[in-house]
Each structure stands twice: as structure tokens, then as C-alpha cells.
């Protein structure tokens, strides 16, 4: 259903006209809600350390998690001690919880587990970002900056830096707000953020020149085995074998295209974003190799088979982004 909606939001057809009045109402409600926070009618709270929000104005995945992982590493290299908070989307947790690489994705969400695994930073999840941030800082007082994974529209949490991630291929779909289109907020919201990160070539986003527009590329070269993680393979090692690639992410085609560019021939199986896998999903697969994303892999670890291979990706982002962020953080220090 989610993937079907994403495709519908790429175009504008007569049935979208029926939804436009609801989209206009949604715009009024969201604008009024933000106004209430700005005026102090609705209370927002700040944390005792700077907060960097990595979010988007679209529904669906745009590539925020690789940006969060990259940002955490860059901040550590710059002398900061970051912590990460997240809503834990896809998990069934009630309340606040610390996340480790061994945490259950069904409880805390797949992306927080992946972030904890890749960054070795403190990670806390909770629907209330302020409470999650305070719990993180209480448990880890050494943290001197907090990254909020998503939460651009969570105005109860005050923020010092706002980054918006945009899918360079899909852009803003048909440009309409929910439910006629994929936007949570109008494109004009981008004029108020500190930087826009385009996941892929940003040729369709040049109109956003009012803020730094920075391209990100997701690089991948080798696979690791989900059972024996020290075992690595290159694409050539899968030659002559049947392959099934699975993806339960915001843009499965991006992953599949990446595999094709590596010279692999495979059968595709796309699932909804944050899909919770079980062993039965793989029982009838007649294939030599199963390839998946790291986000999928954290949910398949408990029933992994020796033919499960994972393709980790690393974000490559222009250093201009860190210059923008560090400049803002330096001003807060002074």
C-alpha cells in the first residue's frame, strides 16, 4: 500500500483534484500549529546541548539514516561527542529506551538499531523527542551535541541546526501536500532550514538555491555475510549463482539499481518501508543468494541463513555541509 501511494504521488491525475481541498485544510492546520509553537502558545523545550535535526518534508524514506551516520562520524572527528535520538518508527516500544546493536528492531525500530551499530554512539528512542533527549543526556552526560533522526515537524523540541534530506530522483513528487501529494510541509519550508541534502543528483532541485544544496552519494563495494560477518564478497563472487534481492526501504529501486550497476542479475522483491521480516518470508525462495540492505539485515539476524548477504552503504557528502554545521555550532559556543 505504501509503495502504491508513493507512485501515485509522483503524478497529478483527475482524482487528485478531489483531494486538493483536504490538502489545503492540511496546509492551514500545519501552518497554524507551527505559528502556535512560534508564539509560545504550544510549549517547546530546549536541551542543554545543541540539537541538529535531520528530517524531510516528504512522507517516506529519503536517505536520512545514512546522513545521520555520516554526521555522527564527522562530529566525532571534529571533537564532539554526539548522541542520537529517534522516534523508533516501526517499533512497538511505549516510553523511552536506550538502543544497542543487540536491541530488538521490532521494539525500538530498525533504523535506531542500525545507527547504534554503525556509529557506536548513544542512541535513545521515544515518541517524545524532548524526553528521549533528556534521558540520553542523563545516561551519557559526556554527550555535547544531540542528533535527532527525523523530527523536523516535532516542534516541541527546539533545534539549533535543521537539515532536510530530499530524494534527488523523486524530488517532491507532484508537489502537493497530504493527502493529494507526499508533502508534510510546503516547499517554502526549505527556505528556513540550514541546508538541503539531495540523495543523488540534484538536477531537479535547483530552485532551492535559497539554501545550500548539497549532493550525497551512497557508495557500496563489498558484501558481508549475515551469519559470518567477517566473510566478505565482491559482486564477481556471485557469478553463475541465482540471486534474489530484497528491500524494505523508502526507495527500493535505488537499491536495485545499485545492484544492477554492480553487474548483478537478480530477482527483485520489494516490501514496504520498515517491513518486519520473519523466517517464513524466505522459506520458499528458490535462490542461491539472498542480498539485502543493512536496514533489512538488522531484522533478519535472528533467523539468518549462510546464503544471506548484506550490502552496506556509506554516505559521501561534500565537506561544505560540515562547514555549515560547524560554523553554526561555533557561534553557539561563543
TrEMBL record:
From the UniProt record, which GO molecular function terms apply? ATP binding; lipid-A 4'-kinase activity
Residues reported in the UniProt entry to bind ATP: 58-65
Quote the pathway field: Glycolipid biosynthesis; lipid IV(A) biosynthesis; lipid IV(A) from (3R)-3-hydroxytetradecanoyl-[acyl-carrier-protein] and UDP-N-acetyl-alpha-D-glucosamine: step 6/6
Q: Which GO terms describe its biological process?
A: lipid A biosynthetic process; lipopolysaccharide core region biosynthetic process
Annotated TM spans = 15-36
Keywords on this record? ATP-binding, Kinase, Lipid A biosynthesis, Lipid biosynthesis, Lipid metabolism, Membrane, Nucleotide-binding, Transferase, Transmembrane, Transmembrane helix
Domain of life (superkingdom): Bacteria
Establish whether keyword Kinase is in the entry. Answer: yes
A single Gene Ontology CC annotation of this entry is: plasma membrane
**EC number of the protein:** 2.7.1.130
Class of the enzyme per the UniProt entry, highest EC level = transferase
The catalysed reaction is: a lipid A disaccharide + ATP = a lipid IVA + ADP + H(+)
Please give the SUPFAM superfamilies that the UniProt record associates with this protein: P-loop containing nucleoside triphosphate hydrolases
As for family, the record states: Belongs to the LpxK family.
Please give the function described in this protein's UniProt entry: Transfers the gamma-phosphate of ATP to the 4'-position of a tetraacyldisaccharide 1-phosphate intermediate (termed DS-1-P) to form tetraacyldisaccharide 1,4'-bis-phosphate (lipid IVA).
- This chain belongs to the protein called Tetraacyldisaccharide 4'-kinase
Q: What is the lineage of its organism?
A: Bacteria, Pseudomonadati, Pseudomonadota, Betaproteobacteria, Nitrosomonadales
